[in-house]
């Protein structure tokens, strides 16, 4: 069943177009990789789908409701409940321990302190970083930090996880471990994932690949080809 | 790949029958090109002739295999020598993928070369996804992971080349057909 729909999304930064009419459906539990060369608009698409950015034109619908018309406060609320967001780095609050970081979204959503800590510990365990619970980010490896960030993105059990180059700052093995766990947990909880990456080997973890080029979809998955750009060195 | 050296390496772990060797090969090198029983016995015959392995038990004439093979001192020395020699890192650029794109540009046009690249990209992506599913399956062994990693790294490199070349096809065609 389609959960998230984008229709004719257009977004520019000043005179520079980033998205030039993107139409895309994301089903429940589906893992979709958004790929393409640098500057093709993949991060902008993720930000529009997650309600972080408002498109200049077009629609984003979440379970049939027009997300792009909501207030910033309403979209922000959605990101604390149904949407989880995971970036490349710099997401954990340095002054807080891993458990406190992971518990944060639950506390913001009104969960009691004790229940939030219990849930945080469960998710740290699921991501194999239980030993980091009382450690601050500065004392963890990059891989451990990213697992904690993943736990924090999943602790509210979102219906969609938006992950922008989630393994981009990690070495191959650490990146693979984070991604394997992320995908396994997403499948177990039927969480949809929008995974932005420029790496084919990362996109291979997804059910489907959407390739962007100059702000439009180049071709989808394995079947549908669009005209190819070319001729520049 | 050198099947004789591979069999010597497997025999270095202990004496084995031909059938056990074949099984050990398939376990240690999952995803490898299939190794036929006939090839195992033919290779063992040559290793035996050259004194690199010794046989114990009756010769295999017909019926069940009762001959066991063991590594000789000479066999161990040959194996050590092989393990010590560095493989030449890509001495020639001669992959069928590369050759096909060159020929497509020579005999056809930009669109033909590009169509081939797109189709090949799709096939590579599909295989990459299959191998990723294989290595993330719950029952996976380290043998499977290491073999899949090797294939994934090479497919990934091919895909990067395909993407870059897709962008260069028009310029390349102008160079080939000035």
UniProtKB/TrEMBL annotation, chain A:
GO CC list: plasma membrane
Keyword Protein biosynthesis: no
Pfam families, alphabetized: ABC_tran (PF00005)
A GO MF term: ATP hydrolysis activity
All copies of domain ABC transporter, residue ranges: 4-232
Keyword Transport attributed: yes
Domain of life where this protein originates: Bacteria
Swiss-Prot/TrEMBL keywords: ATP-binding, Nucleotide-binding, Transport
Record's protein name: ABC transporter ATP-binding protein
Naturally occurring in which organism (per UniProt): Micromonospora sediminimaris
From TrEMBL, chain B:
Classification via SUPFAM superfamilies: Winged helix' DNA-binding domain
Superkingdom of source: Bacteria
Family annotation (Gene3D superfamilies): Winged helix-like DNA-binding domain superfamily/Winged helix DNA-binding domain
Domain Transcription regulator PadR N-terminal: 7-80
Record-given protein name: PadR family transcriptional regulator
């Amino acid at each position: 069943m389609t959960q998230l729909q984008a229709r004719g999304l257009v977004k520019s930064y000043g005179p520079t177009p980033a998205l030039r009419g993107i139409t895309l459906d994301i089903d429940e539990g589906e893992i979709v990789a958004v790929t393409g060369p640098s500057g093709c608009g993949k991060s902008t698409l993720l930000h529009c789908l997650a309600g972080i950015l408002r498109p200049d034109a077009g629609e984003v619908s979440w379970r049939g409701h027009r997300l792009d018309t909501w207030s910033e406060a309403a979209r922000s609320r959605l990101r604390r409940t149904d949407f989880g967001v995971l970036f490349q780095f710099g997401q954990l609050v340095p002054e807080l321990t891993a458990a406190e970081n992971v518990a944060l979204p639950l506390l913001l959503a009104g969960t009691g302190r004790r229940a939030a800590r219990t849930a945080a510990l469960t998710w740290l365990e699921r991501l194999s970083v239980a030993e980091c619970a009382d450690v601050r980010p500065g004392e963890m490896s990059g891989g451990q930090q990213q697992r904690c960030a993943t736990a924090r993105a999943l602790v509210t059990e979102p219906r969609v996880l938006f992950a922008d180059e989630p393994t981009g700052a990690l070495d191959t093995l650490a990146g693979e471990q984070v991604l394997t766990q992320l995908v396994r947990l997403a499948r177990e909880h039927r969480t949809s994932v929008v995974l932005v990456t420029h790496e084919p080997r990362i996109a291979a973890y997804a059910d489907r690949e959407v390739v962007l080029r100059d702000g439009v979809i180049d071709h989808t998955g394995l079947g549908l080809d669009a005209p190819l750009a070319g001729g520049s060195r | 790949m050198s099947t004789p050296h591979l069999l010597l390496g497997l025999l270095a772990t202990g004496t084995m029958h031909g059938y056990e060797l074949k099984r050990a090969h398939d376990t240690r090198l999952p995803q490898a090109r299939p190794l036929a029983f006939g090839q195992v016995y033919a290779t063992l015959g040559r290793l035996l002739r050259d004194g690199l392995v010794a046989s114990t038990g009756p010769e295999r004439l017909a019926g069940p295999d009762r001959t066991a093979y063991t590594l000789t001192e000479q066999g161990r020395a040959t194996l050590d020598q092989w393990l010590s020699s560095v493989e030449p890192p890509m001495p020639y650029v001669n992959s069928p993928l590369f050759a096909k794109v060159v020929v497509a540009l020579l005999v056809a046009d930009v669109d033909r070369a590009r169509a081939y690249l797109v189709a090949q990209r799709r096939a590579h992506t599909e295989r990459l996804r299959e191998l990723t599913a294989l290595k993330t399956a719950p029952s996976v062994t380290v043998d499977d992971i290491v073999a899949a990693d090797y294939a994934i790294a090479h497919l990934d490199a091919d895909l990067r080349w395909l993407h870059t070349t897709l962008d260069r096809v028009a310029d390349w065609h102008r160079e080939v057909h000035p």
